[in-house]
Amino acid sequence: MNSEILKQIGLDTIDPGIIILALTFLVLVLMVIVIIGMVQNSKLKKKYNKFMQGTKAASLESQIQSLIKNVNDLNATADNHEERLVKIFKKHESSYQKLGLIKYDAFKEMGGMLSCCICILDENNNGIIMNNVHSSTGCYSYTKRVKKGVCELDLSPEEKISLDKAMAYVPESTPNSKLKSKPAEKSSKLEELDMDEDYESEDSKDLEEVDLK
């Protein structure tokens, strides 16, 4: 097969069948590329139609601007909430949140552990100690100020125990949990009892006396 065109480009020595096969391969590659492009274009067109469904260019622009405004408003609201939370946490530091309570008998002739010492502290261990002394002649209350866990005045043993209990109170993470405190040293003259247990024991004694009678 003689071709003037092949002679001019220097390919007259190559078998024409090879040239045909090469051109056929190139055509197939181009067809695959075209089909892939058509599929991608179809997917993009579906997404575009879904995005533009029921809207026009003008309304779409207004919607985008509205969304941007909403995002800016949400960011401003989040910043405002963050500032308010910081203020709330700051106020919470100065609120009373720790409690130490101990009941005792102020005088040997007095029973029932009617005297009590209460210590209330904030997060920074600032607060007061209230000592209520019950006697046969009356009830007297004394207060002492606590700053950073230290009291400038001398503390009685009961006041010291209530202060230690208040500083050791740590709330649990679970809801409806009770506060735990580190065990304090027990004095031979002091007995730590819960108020409910005292009342239950006194009621049970009264009932026993009535039955005996």
Topology:
Elements: H1 4-9, H2 16-51, H3 57-93, E1 98-104, E2 115-121, E3 127-134, E4 139-147, E5 150-151, H4 157-168, H5 195-212
Number of helices: 5
Indicate the percent of residues in helices. 40-55%
**Main sheet: strand order:** 1-2-3-4-5
Structural class: alpha+beta
Describe this structure in words.
The protein is of the alpha+beta class and 213 residues long. The chain is 51% helix and 15% strand. It has helices at 4-9, 16-51, 57-93, 157-168, 195-212; strands at 98-104, 115-121, 127-134, 139-147, 150-151. The chain has a five-stranded antiparallel beta sheet, covered by helices on one side. A hairpin with a 5-residue loop joins strand 2 and strand 3. The longest helix is centred in the middle third of the chain and has 37 residues, at 57-93. It is rod-shaped and about 135 Å long.
State the gist of this model.
The protein is α+β, with helices and mostly antiparallel strands.
Task: Quickly list its features.
213 residues; alpha+beta; 5-stranded antiparallel sheet; 5 helices; 5 strands; rod-shaped; disordered C terminus
